[in-house]
Design a protein that fits this description.
4 helices; mainly alpha; single chain
Length: 102
């Protein structure tokens, strides 16, 4: 992975983590936010390994443009079942809504 791209992703993830942490302190029901911050932490851990940007299903590379838009993503849309695609879509929508609200 290009070091400049990796630095941008790391910065984006750290910014997202900081915003989520602040929001968790401000809201009563934060179960989904806690799960999202765990997802951010997991993405930061993967970023330090060769596994970041690799699909967990097919082991193929996820496109940089898609990673930039969705840095928490762990799957391409290769062989996901309809149920998995729906769950992924839900997670991406939730992350987008939270990010937009922050």
């Amino acid at each position: 992975m290009d070091p400049t791209f990796e630095a941008k992703i790391r910065e984006q993830l750290l910014d997202r983590r900081q915003k989520l942490s602040r929001t968790i302190d401000e809201v009563e029901e934060s179960t989904d936010l806690v799960r999202l911050i765990q997802d951010v932490d997991a993405a930061l851990e993967r970023l330090a390994t060769p596994n970041y940007g690799m699909c967990k299903v097919c082991q193929g590379e996820i496109e940089d443009d898609f990673l930039h838009e969705h840095p928490l993503i762990q799957y391409c849309l290769c062989d996901l079942s309809p149920r998995q695609q729906k769950a992924l879509e839900h997670d991406l929508d939730l992350a987008s809504q939270v990010q937009w609200a922050l």
